[in-house]
């Protein structure tokens, strides 16, 4: 009889954990770290939604005293598209730097940017700007890549975009995004810890 109650308690505990994970899965992905707006800042915009990320970069740049914006070229020359859009919004061309590289993943973007900054040393803080749902994983990847440097690295989710971390389960595309992001997080953790 006691074992029956133990199994029921374990099952209820398991269901509680799964329910909490389900409830918080989207919220945990959205990560916006606080950083000093008075320190010189390098903003790295990651590939993705051009409008959401450039609007976020524009707002962020206008809240900073001293900034530079970096975009990484991929095989489809996204750096030029970001640069053009930012200039149309009013960011001076001399504040935008396109880093050549062929990034196909967030990890590629972090290693390409680090290689650039290894060649052009600076002690400016680094802000990684990306979409809401991508911000947690991007922050982990960049912090891991830069861990042996003296740079402070911050993840910053653009406030733009339609992803809703609190109600992600209501929309089919957001369910897919949350599921894929958690798979990518698991892959990243597995690769970093065991490979």
Main β-sheet, spatial strand arrangement: 3-2-1-4-5
* Class based on secondary structure composition and strand pairing: alpha/beta
Q: Which stretches are low in confidence, meaning pLDDT under 50 for 5 or more residues running? A: none
Give the beta-strand count: 5
How far apart are the first and last residues' alpha carbons, in Å? 46 Å
Please describe the biggest sheet, giving its number of strands, its sense, and whether it closes into a barrel: 5 strands, parallel
- Write out the CATH superfamily name of the domain at 31-162: HUPs
Describe the structure.
The structure is a single chain. The protein is of the alpha/beta class and 195 residues long. The chain is built from six helices and five strands. It has a domain of 132 residues: HUPs (Rossmann fold, 3-Layer(aba) Sandwich), CATH 3.40.50. Strands 3-2-1-4-5 form a five-stranded parallel sheet, sandwiched between helices. Helix 2 crosses helix 3 and helix 4 packs parallel to helix 5. The chain is elongated and about 75 Å long. It starts with a helix and ends with a helix. The mean pLDDT is 90.
